[in-house]
From TrEMBL:
GO terms for cellular component: cytoplasm. Signal peptide: none annotated. It comes from Geococcyx californianus. PANTHER family: LEUCINE-RICH REPEAT-CONTAINING PROTEIN 51, NISCHARIN RELATED. This is LRC43 protein. Keywords: Leucine-rich repeat, Repeat.
Length: 327
Protein backbone atom coordinates (compact mmCIF):
# COMPACT_ATOMS: atom_id res chain seq x y z
CA UNK A 1 0.00 0.00 0.00
CA UNK A 2 0.98 3.66 -0.27
CA UNK A 3 1.12 3.93 3.53
CA UNK A 4 3.53 1.02 3.82
CA UNK A 5 5.79 2.50 1.13
CA UNK A 6 5.66 5.89 2.86
CA UNK A 7 6.67 4.45 6.24
CA UNK A 8 9.48 2.52 4.59
CA UNK A 9 10.68 5.78 3.04
CA UNK A 10 10.73 7.43 6.47
CA UNK A 11 12.68 4.49 7.87
CA UNK A 12 15.35 4.92 5.20
CA UNK A 13 15.67 8.60 6.08
CA UNK A 14 16.67 7.61 9.62
CA UNK A 15 15.03 10.60 11.28
CA UNK A 16 15.39 9.07 14.76
CA UNK A 17 18.92 7.74 14.31
CA UNK A 18 22.31 9.42 14.66
CA UNK A 19 23.04 12.15 13.68
CA UNK A 20 19.30 12.97 13.66
CA UNK A 21 16.77 12.57 16.45
CA UNK A 22 17.39 12.74 20.20
CA UNK A 23 20.11 10.57 21.71
CA UNK A 24 23.30 10.58 23.71
CA UNK A 25 24.81 12.86 21.08
CA UNK A 26 22.50 15.79 21.91
CA UNK A 27 20.12 14.88 24.73
CA UNK A 28 21.00 17.82 26.98
CA UNK A 29 19.82 20.25 24.31
CA UNK A 30 16.27 18.86 24.43
CA UNK A 31 16.05 17.82 28.10
CA UNK A 32 13.24 19.92 29.63
CA UNK A 33 14.18 18.89 33.15
CA UNK A 34 16.88 20.69 35.13
CA UNK A 35 20.32 19.34 34.33
CA UNK A 36 22.30 18.51 37.51
CA UNK A 37 25.54 19.23 35.67
CA UNK A 38 24.54 22.72 34.67
CA UNK A 39 21.85 23.54 37.18
CA UNK A 40 19.59 24.84 34.41
CA UNK A 41 17.38 23.65 31.58
CA UNK A 42 18.66 22.41 28.22
CA UNK A 43 18.88 24.31 24.94
CA UNK A 44 15.33 23.49 24.01
CA UNK A 45 14.10 25.67 26.85
CA UNK A 46 16.86 28.23 27.26
CA UNK A 47 18.61 29.59 24.16
CA UNK A 48 21.32 31.09 26.36
CA UNK A 49 22.41 27.58 27.21
CA UNK A 50 23.91 27.29 23.75
CA UNK A 51 26.90 29.25 24.92
CA UNK A 52 27.82 26.71 27.60
CA UNK A 53 30.30 23.93 27.00
CA UNK A 54 28.77 20.74 25.63
CA UNK A 55 28.77 17.68 27.92
CA UNK A 56 31.16 14.91 27.04
CA UNK A 57 30.05 12.57 24.22
CA UNK A 58 27.71 15.22 22.79
CA UNK A 59 28.05 16.91 19.41
CA UNK A 60 27.33 20.49 18.44
CA UNK A 61 24.51 21.17 15.93
CA UNK A 62 27.12 22.36 13.46
CA UNK A 63 29.06 19.09 13.68
CA UNK A 64 25.87 17.03 13.25
CA UNK A 65 24.77 19.09 10.26
CA UNK A 66 28.19 18.62 8.67
CA UNK A 67 27.72 14.86 8.85
CA UNK A 68 24.60 15.26 6.70
CA UNK A 69 26.14 17.61 4.14
CA UNK A 70 29.61 16.12 3.66
CA UNK A 71 29.40 13.84 0.62
CA UNK A 72 32.07 11.55 2.14
CA UNK A 73 30.04 11.05 5.30
CA UNK A 74 28.29 7.67 5.73
CA UNK A 75 25.20 9.60 6.87
CA UNK A 76 25.02 11.86 3.83
CA UNK A 77 21.85 11.72 1.74
CA UNK A 78 21.98 10.35 -1.80
CA UNK A 79 22.56 13.00 -4.49
CA UNK A 80 19.14 12.26 -6.04
CA UNK A 81 17.14 12.84 -2.85
CA UNK A 82 14.54 15.58 -2.85
CA UNK A 83 14.81 18.97 -1.18
CA UNK A 84 11.99 17.87 1.08
CA UNK A 85 14.04 14.90 2.33
CA UNK A 86 17.02 17.17 2.95
CA UNK A 87 14.85 19.58 4.91
CA UNK A 88 13.43 16.73 6.99
CA UNK A 89 16.90 15.50 7.92
CA UNK A 90 17.97 19.01 8.90
CA UNK A 91 14.87 19.44 11.06
CA UNK A 92 15.58 16.07 12.69
CA UNK A 93 18.95 17.48 13.80
CA UNK A 94 17.96 20.99 14.84
CA UNK A 95 14.37 20.45 16.06
CA UNK A 96 13.83 16.67 16.28
CA UNK A 97 10.59 16.98 18.27
CA UNK A 98 8.90 18.44 15.18
CA UNK A 99 9.42 15.26 13.19
CA UNK A 100 8.35 12.75 15.84
CA UNK A 101 5.07 10.85 15.95
CA UNK A 102 2.12 12.27 14.06
CA UNK A 103 3.79 15.67 13.73
CA UNK A 104 5.70 14.48 10.69
CA UNK A 105 2.51 13.96 8.68
CA UNK A 106 1.83 17.69 8.72
CA UNK A 107 5.17 18.44 7.08
CA UNK A 108 4.55 16.69 3.76
CA UNK A 109 3.17 18.70 0.86
CA UNK A 110 4.73 16.43 -1.78
CA UNK A 111 4.93 12.64 -1.72
CA UNK A 112 6.79 10.76 -4.44
CA UNK A 113 6.64 6.95 -4.44
CA UNK A 114 7.87 5.67 -7.81
CA UNK A 115 8.55 2.06 -8.82
CA UNK A 116 7.88 0.54 -5.39
CA UNK A 117 5.33 -2.08 -6.44
CA UNK A 118 2.44 -0.26 -4.74
CA UNK A 119 -0.94 -1.84 -5.50
CA UNK A 120 -3.31 0.01 -3.18
CA UNK A 121 -3.99 3.65 -2.36
CA UNK A 122 -5.20 3.09 1.20
CA UNK A 123 -6.91 5.37 3.72
CA UNK A 124 -3.66 5.86 5.65
CA UNK A 125 -2.85 8.57 3.11
CA UNK A 126 -5.47 10.78 4.77
CA UNK A 127 -3.02 11.42 7.62
CA UNK A 128 -1.12 13.71 5.24
CA UNK A 129 -3.54 16.58 5.68
CA UNK A 130 -1.30 19.14 3.95
CA UNK A 131 -0.49 17.00 0.90
CA UNK A 132 -0.78 18.86 -2.43
CA UNK A 133 1.24 16.68 -4.81
CA UNK A 134 1.06 12.88 -5.01
CA UNK A 135 3.25 11.04 -7.54
CA UNK A 136 2.71 7.27 -7.77
CA UNK A 137 4.19 6.49 -11.19
CA UNK A 138 5.47 3.05 -12.27
CA UNK A 139 3.59 0.99 -9.69
CA UNK A 140 0.87 -1.69 -9.94
CA UNK A 141 -2.21 0.37 -9.06
CA UNK A 142 -5.38 -0.79 -10.79
CA UNK A 143 -8.04 1.12 -8.84
CA UNK A 144 -8.10 4.35 -6.83
CA UNK A 145 -10.78 5.19 -4.29
CA UNK A 146 -11.18 8.95 -4.14
CA UNK A 147 -12.26 8.79 -0.48
CA UNK A 148 -8.66 7.82 0.39
CA UNK A 149 -7.14 10.92 -1.22
CA UNK A 150 -6.45 14.08 0.83
CA UNK A 151 -8.84 16.87 -0.13
CA UNK A 152 -5.91 19.27 -0.43
CA UNK A 153 -4.43 17.48 -3.48
CA UNK A 154 -3.63 19.65 -6.52
CA UNK A 155 -1.47 17.17 -8.47
CA UNK A 156 -2.14 13.45 -8.91
CA UNK A 157 0.27 11.53 -11.14
CA UNK A 158 -0.47 7.85 -11.88
CA UNK A 159 1.59 7.30 -15.02
CA UNK A 160 2.64 3.71 -15.87
CA UNK A 161 0.21 1.78 -13.69
CA UNK A 162 -2.60 -0.65 -14.62
CA UNK A 163 -5.62 1.63 -14.13
CA UNK A 164 -8.54 0.44 -16.27
CA UNK A 165 -11.49 2.15 -14.59
CA UNK A 166 -12.10 5.67 -13.26
CA UNK A 167 -15.45 5.23 -11.54
CA UNK A 168 -14.04 4.91 -8.01
CA UNK A 169 -11.70 7.85 -8.58
CA UNK A 170 -14.58 10.03 -9.79
CA UNK A 171 -16.90 9.27 -6.88
CA UNK A 172 -15.59 12.16 -4.75
CA UNK A 173 -12.28 13.43 -6.18
CA UNK A 174 -10.21 16.21 -4.57
CA UNK A 175 -12.03 19.42 -5.56
CA UNK A 176 -8.87 21.52 -6.11
CA UNK A 177 -7.04 19.06 -8.36
CA UNK A 178 -5.25 20.87 -11.20
CA UNK A 179 -3.25 18.06 -12.84
CA UNK A 180 -4.33 14.46 -13.43
CA UNK A 181 -1.76 12.13 -15.00
CA UNK A 182 -3.09 8.81 -16.33
CA UNK A 183 -0.65 8.14 -19.16
CA UNK A 184 0.46 4.56 -19.94
CA UNK A 185 -2.48 2.83 -18.29
CA UNK A 186 -5.33 0.62 -19.58
CA UNK A 187 -8.16 3.08 -20.05
CA UNK A 188 -10.43 2.66 -23.03
CA UNK A 189 -13.66 4.52 -22.33
CA UNK A 190 -17.03 2.75 -22.10
CA UNK A 191 -16.87 1.67 -18.45
CA UNK A 192 -16.33 5.21 -17.14
CA UNK A 193 -18.45 7.32 -19.46
CA UNK A 194 -18.88 10.94 -18.29
CA UNK A 195 -16.06 10.68 -15.70
CA UNK A 196 -13.92 13.39 -17.32
CA UNK A 197 -16.32 16.31 -16.98
CA UNK A 198 -16.38 19.50 -14.92
CA UNK A 199 -18.83 17.84 -12.53
CA UNK A 200 -15.86 15.93 -11.10
CA UNK A 201 -12.84 18.06 -12.09
CA UNK A 202 -13.91 21.74 -12.00
CA UNK A 203 -10.35 23.08 -11.58
CA UNK A 204 -8.44 20.73 -13.87
CA UNK A 205 -5.77 22.59 -15.89
CA UNK A 206 -3.63 19.71 -17.15
CA UNK A 207 -4.72 16.20 -18.22
CA UNK A 208 -2.48 13.38 -19.46
CA UNK A 209 -4.28 10.41 -21.06
CA UNK A 210 -1.45 9.37 -23.37
CA UNK A 211 -0.79 5.77 -24.42
CA UNK A 212 -4.09 4.25 -23.37
CA UNK A 213 -6.73 2.65 -25.63
CA UNK A 214 -9.09 5.52 -26.44
CA UNK A 215 -10.86 5.13 -29.77
CA UNK A 216 -13.92 7.41 -29.54
CA UNK A 217 -12.68 10.92 -30.35
CA UNK A 218 -16.16 12.46 -30.55
CA UNK A 219 -17.23 10.98 -27.22
CA UNK A 220 -14.05 12.08 -25.47
CA UNK A 221 -14.29 15.64 -26.81
CA UNK A 222 -17.90 15.90 -25.61
CA UNK A 223 -16.64 15.30 -22.07
CA UNK A 224 -13.48 17.43 -22.21
CA UNK A 225 -15.36 20.43 -23.61
CA UNK A 226 -16.94 20.96 -20.18
CA UNK A 227 -13.52 21.44 -18.53
CA UNK A 228 -13.40 25.22 -18.75
CA UNK A 229 -9.96 25.54 -17.10
CA UNK A 230 -8.25 22.83 -19.17
CA UNK A 231 -5.16 24.24 -20.93
CA UNK A 232 -2.83 21.23 -21.39
CA UNK A 233 -3.96 17.92 -22.92
CA UNK A 234 -1.91 14.86 -23.90
CA UNK A 235 -3.59 12.13 -25.98
CA UNK A 236 -0.74 10.84 -28.14
CA UNK A 237 -0.29 7.09 -28.22
CA UNK A 238 -4.03 6.34 -28.33
CA UNK A 239 -5.68 4.75 -31.40
CA UNK A 240 -7.80 7.88 -31.90
CA UNK A 241 -4.60 9.87 -32.53
CA UNK A 242 -4.28 8.00 -35.87
CA UNK A 243 -7.39 9.74 -37.24
CA UNK A 244 -6.24 12.18 -39.98
CA UNK A 245 -8.28 15.09 -38.60
CA UNK A 246 -7.43 14.29 -34.96
CA UNK A 247 -5.39 17.37 -34.07
CA UNK A 248 -7.44 19.85 -36.07
CA UNK A 249 -10.71 18.62 -34.59
CA UNK A 250 -9.36 18.92 -31.03
CA UNK A 251 -7.86 22.36 -31.61
CA UNK A 252 -11.17 23.71 -32.92
CA UNK A 253 -13.35 21.85 -30.39
CA UNK A 254 -11.39 23.04 -27.34
CA UNK A 255 -10.75 26.77 -27.99
CA UNK A 256 -9.21 27.37 -24.55
CA UNK A 257 -6.56 24.66 -24.99
CA UNK A 258 -2.99 26.02 -25.10
CA UNK A 259 -0.91 22.84 -25.51
CA UNK A 260 -1.85 19.57 -27.24
CA UNK A 261 0.52 16.60 -27.13
CA UNK A 262 3.37 18.82 -25.90
CA UNK A 263 2.99 21.16 -28.90
CA UNK A 264 1.85 24.76 -28.39
CA UNK A 265 -1.32 25.77 -30.24
CA UNK A 266 -0.70 29.07 -32.03
CA UNK A 267 -3.14 31.54 -33.67
CA UNK A 268 -2.21 30.32 -37.17
CA UNK A 269 -3.14 26.75 -36.31
CA UNK A 270 -6.44 27.83 -34.79
CA UNK A 271 -7.27 29.82 -37.92
CA UNK A 272 -6.36 26.92 -40.19
CA UNK A 273 -8.67 24.49 -38.39
CA UNK A 274 -11.49 26.95 -37.72
CA UNK A 275 -14.92 25.39 -38.32
CA UNK A 276 -13.71 21.76 -38.31
CA UNK A 277 -15.57 21.05 -35.06
CA UNK A 278 -18.86 21.75 -36.87
CA UNK A 279 -18.11 19.11 -39.50
CA UNK A 280 -18.13 15.81 -37.56
CA UNK A 281 -18.60 13.91 -40.81
CA UNK A 282 -14.93 14.61 -41.55
CA UNK A 283 -13.84 12.78 -38.40
CA UNK A 284 -13.46 9.14 -39.38
CA UNK A 285 -13.92 6.58 -36.64
CA UNK A 286 -11.29 4.18 -37.92
CA UNK A 287 -7.69 4.11 -39.08
CA UNK A 288 -5.67 1.62 -41.09
CA UNK A 289 -2.23 0.36 -40.15
CA UNK A 290 -0.20 -1.64 -42.69
CA UNK A 291 2.52 -3.90 -41.27
CA UNK A 292 5.13 -5.56 -43.50
CA UNK A 293 7.12 -8.49 -42.14
CA UNK A 294 10.52 -8.49 -43.79
CA UNK A 295 12.16 -11.47 -42.11
CA UNK A 296 11.43 -13.98 -39.36
CA UNK A 297 14.37 -15.68 -37.66
CA UNK A 298 14.42 -18.88 -35.60
CA UNK A 299 11.40 -20.59 -37.22
CA UNK A 300 12.12 -23.91 -39.05
CA UNK A 301 11.25 -24.08 -42.75
CA UNK A 302 8.12 -26.30 -43.10
CA UNK A 303 8.96 -27.28 -46.69
CA UNK A 304 12.22 -28.90 -45.61
CA UNK A 305 10.42 -31.06 -43.05
CA UNK A 306 7.75 -32.32 -45.43
CA UNK A 307 9.95 -33.95 -48.10
CA UNK A 308 8.64 -37.52 -48.10
CA UNK A 309 9.46 -40.31 -50.52
CA UNK A 310 6.86 -41.10 -53.19
CA UNK A 311 4.46 -43.75 -51.92
CA UNK A 312 5.54 -43.34 -48.32
CA UNK A 313 2.88 -44.25 -45.75
CA UNK A 314 4.38 -42.11 -43.02
CA UNK A 315 2.00 -39.56 -41.54
CA UNK A 316 2.20 -36.06 -42.96
CA UNK A 317 2.95 -33.38 -40.39
CA UNK A 318 2.03 -29.80 -41.24
CA UNK A 319 3.52 -26.71 -39.68
CA UNK A 320 1.90 -23.29 -39.71
CA UNK A 321 2.93 -19.98 -38.22
CA UNK A 322 0.93 -16.92 -37.24
CA UNK A 323 2.26 -13.43 -36.58
CA UNK A 324 -0.03 -11.36 -34.31
CA UNK A 325 0.05 -7.65 -33.50
CA UNK A 326 -1.89 -6.26 -30.56
CA UNK A 327 -3.03 -2.64 -30.69
Amino acid sequence: SVSAAFLEHLRHLGLQDFPCGIGSWNKSRFNVRTSPRRGRTGWGEDPAGQEEALPLAEESPEALMELLSDRHSPWALRPDCSLQDQHLREMAVLTPKLVRGSNIFQFFKTLRIVGKGVEEVDEGLLQLQQLEELILSANQISKITSANLPRTLKVLELCCNVVADLQDLCTQPPPELQHLGLGYNRLCGPSWDKCLTADFWPNLVSLDLSFNSFTDLMGLVSQLSSLQKLRILVLQGNPLALIPTYRGFLVDSLPKLSVLDDIHIGPDERHRFHGLARQPELVKSEARVVVSVGEIKGAPDPSALQQLEVGSKAPVITYSYCVMYEF
